[in-house]
Amino acid sequence: MNTIVGALLKKISKAMVEDLEFKVCIVLPLLPGFEGEITEKTANVMRIQLGWEYSTISKGQDSMIEV
Question: φ, ψ for residue 7 (rounded to 5)?
Protein backbone atom coordinates (compact mmCIF):
# COMPACT_ATOMS: atom_id res chain seq x y z
CA MET A 1 0.00 0.00 0.00
CA ASN A 2 1.13 3.53 -0.75
CA THR A 3 2.63 5.04 2.43
CA ILE A 4 0.65 8.28 2.09
CA VAL A 5 -2.60 6.35 1.71
CA GLY A 6 -1.65 4.19 4.70
CA ALA A 7 -0.99 7.26 6.86
CA LEU A 8 -4.28 8.87 5.86
CA LEU A 9 -6.25 5.70 6.52
CA LYS A 10 -4.59 5.27 9.92
CA LYS A 11 -5.54 8.83 10.89
CA ILE A 12 -9.12 8.42 9.63
CA SER A 13 -9.52 5.09 11.45
CA LYS A 14 -8.23 6.59 14.70
CA ALA A 15 -10.65 9.51 14.41
CA MET A 16 -13.54 7.11 13.82
CA VAL A 17 -12.66 4.93 16.82
CA GLU A 18 -12.26 7.97 19.08
CA ASP A 19 -15.40 9.59 17.61
CA LEU A 20 -13.45 12.71 16.62
CA GLU A 21 -14.29 15.07 13.80
CA PHE A 22 -11.72 14.67 11.05
CA LYS A 23 -11.66 16.01 7.53
CA VAL A 24 -9.45 15.07 4.60
CA CYS A 25 -9.10 17.16 1.47
CA ILE A 26 -7.01 15.64 -1.30
CA VAL A 27 -5.99 17.98 -4.09
CA LEU A 28 -4.38 16.57 -7.22
CA PRO A 29 -3.54 18.36 -10.45
CA LEU A 30 -5.61 17.37 -13.45
CA LEU A 31 -2.46 16.20 -15.22
CA PRO A 32 1.10 15.58 -13.97
CA GLY A 33 3.67 18.29 -14.70
CA PHE A 34 5.12 16.76 -17.85
CA GLU A 35 5.51 18.57 -21.15
CA GLY A 36 3.28 17.62 -24.02
CA GLU A 37 -0.21 16.30 -24.56
CA ILE A 38 -1.50 13.08 -23.00
CA THR A 39 -2.46 11.81 -26.47
CA GLU A 40 1.10 12.03 -27.84
CA LYS A 41 3.10 8.84 -28.27
CA THR A 42 5.86 10.32 -26.10
CA ALA A 43 3.50 10.78 -23.10
CA ASN A 44 3.92 7.23 -21.76
CA VAL A 45 5.33 8.35 -18.41
CA MET A 46 2.41 10.73 -17.90
CA ARG A 47 -0.13 7.99 -18.66
CA ILE A 48 1.65 5.57 -16.32
CA GLN A 49 1.61 8.12 -13.50
CA LEU A 50 -2.09 8.81 -14.04
CA GLY A 51 -2.76 5.08 -13.93
CA TRP A 52 -0.94 4.74 -10.61
CA GLU A 53 -2.83 7.70 -9.14
CA TYR A 54 -6.14 6.19 -10.25
CA SER A 55 -5.23 2.79 -8.78
CA THR A 56 -4.05 4.26 -5.49
CA ILE A 57 -7.25 6.19 -4.95
CA SER A 58 -10.04 4.11 -6.40
CA LYS A 59 -9.12 0.74 -7.89
CA GLY A 60 -8.30 -2.58 -6.30
CA GLN A 61 -8.35 -4.06 -2.82
CA ASP A 62 -5.57 -1.79 -1.55
CA SER A 63 -7.10 1.42 -2.91
CA MET A 64 -7.99 4.21 -0.55
CA ILE A 65 -11.71 3.93 -1.30
CA GLU A 66 -11.80 0.13 -0.88
CA VAL A 67 -9.91 0.12 2.43
Answer: -65, -40
* Cα–Cα distance, 61 to 55 (Å, whole number): 10
What span, in angstroms and rounded, lies between the C-alpha atoms of 31 and 12?
27
* Alpha-carbon distance values, 20 to 6, 38, 61 (Å): 19, 41, 26
CB 67 within 8 A of CB 57: no
Give per-residue pLDDT as tens, 12-34: 899 999 999 888 888 877 777 76
Where along the chain do its domains lie? 3-58
Rounded to two decimals, what is the model's pTM?
0.53
Contact 48, 55 (CB under 8 A): no
